[in-house]
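Hi R.,

Here's the chain you asked about this morning:
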Amino acid sequence: MRLFKSAFFGLLIALAPMAAGAQDFPNKGPIKIIVPFPAGGPNDIIARAVGQKMSEILKQKVIIDNRGGAGGVLGTEMVAKADPDGYTVAVTSAGALAISASVQKGVPYDATKDFKAVTLVAKVPEMLVVATSVPASNMAELVALAKKEPGKLNFASSGIGSMPHLAGELLKLNAHINIVHVPYRGAAPAVNDLLGQQVQMVFLDLPILIPQVQAGKLKAIAIGTTKRVAALPNVPTTVEVGYPNIQTENWYGMVAPAATPPDVVAKLNKAAAEALHSDDVKKRLDPLGAILIGDKPEEFAAFIKSEKDKWAGVVKAAGIQPQ
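And the predicted structure, written out as C-alpha cells:
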C-alpha cells in the first residue's frame, strides 16, 4: 500500500507542471501559427489577420511561420509532430487536411487522429472564370461550347489533387463534358497562362480572382457555393445556374497536435472565434470573399471527416491516381 501511495503521489507531482502550464496558457512565449504555403496567398492572408487579433486578445505575441511544400502537407506535418502545449498550431487548408490522403502517396499523418481540431477559420468559395477570348459568358454557353468541341477546352489548376483540380473534375462529371486538365505549380502561374490565353478556364479561390474579374481581364461564370458573395454580387452561384452538386469551397482551419490539453484547445478556440467575429478581421477579410466561421472544436472535427469522405468520392469518380 505504501508503495502504491508513493507511486500515486509521484504521478501527481509529475502531472502538476502540465496542469499548471495548461491553466496558465499562454504565458511562456510566443504562439507560432504555421502556414503551410508561401506568404501572400489566401491561407497566409487569413492566418495573419486572425493571428494579429488573437495576439491582442491573448496578450501574447503570435508569429506566422510560412512552411510551404507538397500542397500544404510539409508544414501541416510539422504541427502533428510539435510539442502538444498550444504554442505551435497551424492554420492549414482543405487540401492538406481533407484531400491529400486521397491524392498523395505516403501522407505522413492522419488528419482525424494526429491533430486536435481547434476551429474552422474561414471558407473561401472557388470561382469559375474563363479567358476573355472564350466565346462564353455564362455556364450554359460554356457547357454548350465544351460539348460542341470535346477535348479542346483546357482547365488549369494549382496542382494535381488540389481543390481547383477537383472543382474542375466536378464540373466535368456534373456537366458531362470533356475538358482537359492542365496542372500548374501554384495559382499564380495558372492565372498568368489564363490571362495569356494559354488555357481557357480555371476554378480558384475568390481572393486570387476578384481583382482580375473587377478589372475585366477575366470573365466570371459562377461561384461554387449556395449564396452569392458581397464582393461580386452579380456573379451567380453554381446552384443558380443549375449545378447544385458543384460545391467548391476551399477552407482553412486551425489545428493543434493531438495530445494538446483540452483546456488549451478551448482557450485557442475562444480567442480565434473572438478574433473572427471582430470588426477588425471582418474589415480585412470580407472584401476577399472569405466567409468567417469560428465554430467549436467538435464541429470542426466532424467537418474534417465529412470533407475527407466527400473528396475521396470525387477522386474515385474522376479516376485520379495518387501521385
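The mean pLDDT is 91.

Let me know if you need anything else.
M.
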